[in-house]
Amino acid sequence: MKTYLSYITIFTLTLITAACGKLDYENKEFYKQEVYIINSESTSATEREITGVQAYTFVDTLKIINDSYDTDTLVDYKVGTANIIFKIGIGGSLSAHEDLEILIDFDEEAVKDYNISKNAERYIPDPSLYTTNIPYDQTRKGFPVVIKAGTASTSLTFQVPIERDKMETYADFAFALKIKETGNATLSRQYYNFMVSELNVDLERVVDWSGFPIPEIPTGRYLSARLLGNGAENIPADGRHRKYKYITPLGDTPELKGKYIIWGTGVWSFEVFAYHGAGWMYNLFTLNDQVTGTYTIEPILAGNSDFPAQTFAYSTVQGVTEDNKYDPKTKTLTIHYKNVIGQDYTDVLTFESEDLTLDPIKGNSISPQSWAQVKSKGYKYWLPEDK
What's the predicted TM-score (pTM) here? Predict the structure, then answer.
C-alpha cells in the first residue's frame, strides 16, 4: 500500500509541476500591454519632450600654407543629415501576439501649447523638408506603423537634410507626434505623445597641418582665464592672485616628444593647491594627431608609478578630452576639462613668459615652495632649476 501511494504522489506532483510551469509563467502577461511612443534620445520613460537636439556639425578646415602659419579656409558646404527617431512599442512582459497597426499623427496642439508657454515660434516643418521611413497616409491622416507579431516595438524616422545656408532655421523645427489609433491594442494614457524641437546645427573649425611640422608648445607661464575668474579660491591670505598655469615638457627624447604637464587644473592654481589631499593639481597633455594638431588632456590616475600622485579627484574622477588645441599665432591653448567635481570646464591659456618661477604661499604645506621640492616628492621628468 505504501509503495502504491508513493507512485500516486510522485505522478500527481509531476503533473502539477508540468502544468504550473507551462501555464502560469511562460505565456502569461503580468502587466498591461499598452501602446506608447518615446524618442530614441529619451533618458526617462516619463519624459515627453526633448528640446535642443544636437543635429549636425559643419566642419571647416584651416589649411596651413606657410611657415608663418597663414591658412586657407576650406568651407564645408556638403549637405548633412539629422535623424529624428521615434520608438512606438507595447508595454508588458510579452511581445505582440499578432501584427499591430498603429496610426501616428502630428500633434499640432502640443506645438501651440509649447509656443504659448515658452513664448516661442516652433512649427512642424513642411513635408518637403524631411523624408520618413514610413509614408504619410493622406486618407487616414497619419503614419501607419506596424509592430510585428513576436516583437515589442517599431520605429518612425524623420530624416532632415541639413544645409549650411539654412543653419538658423532648424532651431524652430518641432516634431510633435501623438498616437491616433491603436487597432486592437490599448492606448497608454500617459505615454501617447512626444515632441522633439530645436535642432541645433553647429560650426567647427579644424586645422590641417599636412606638410608642416606641428609647432612645439612653449615652455613657460600662461595666464589662465579660469584662474583669473576664480579669485575667491586663488587669492590666499597674502592677497596675491595666483592666475597662472605652467607648462613643462616631460623631456626631449623621441619617446617623450609632444608630451607635457600642465601645472594647475580646472579652476585651481598649482601654486595654491598643488599637494591637495585629493591629488595634485596637474594633468598630462599629449599631442594626439599630427594632421589636426589636437591634444589630449588626461588625469594621472591612482596607481600610476610614473608619477608621484594622482591628479586631483574630489568626488569624481576627471575624464579625458581629445579636442584641445594650440594656436601658434596667438600662443593660446584652448583646453577642456571633463568631470572635475562633476563639472566640465573650458579654459584658455595665453602664453606670457618663459619664466617658470613659482609664487608659493610661504609655510603652506600644500603650496609648492620650489620646483626642487616637487622633484623631491618623486616627480622624475624635466623641471626647471629654481632661481
Answer: 0.71
Residue 36 phi/psi, 5-degree rounding, is: -135, 165
Helices (H) and strands (E) in the chain, counts: 6, 21
- Residues 94/33, Cβ–Cβ less than 8 Å: yes
Distance CA 194, CA 187 (A): 14
Cell representation of residue 362: 610661504
Is the same domain home to 270 and 345? yes
Question: For the segment 245-259, what is each residue's pLDDT rounded down to a tens digit?
Answer: 999 999 999 999 999
Q: Is residue 228 part of a domain?
A: yes
Q: What is the pLDDT of residues 82-138, one digit of tens each?
A: 999 999 999 876 888 888 999 999 999 999 999 999 999 999 999 999 999 999 999
20: which 3 cell numbers? 504550473
Closest CA to 224 of 258, 272, 259: 272
State the total domains in the chain: 2
Whether residue 22 is contained in a domain is answered as: no
Residues of the domain holding 90: 34-208
Alpha-carbon distance of 276 to 183, in angstroms, equals 64
DSSP structure class, residue 126: P
Residue 16 has phi, psi (to 5 degrees) of: -65, -45
Residue 220 pairs in a beta bridge with 247
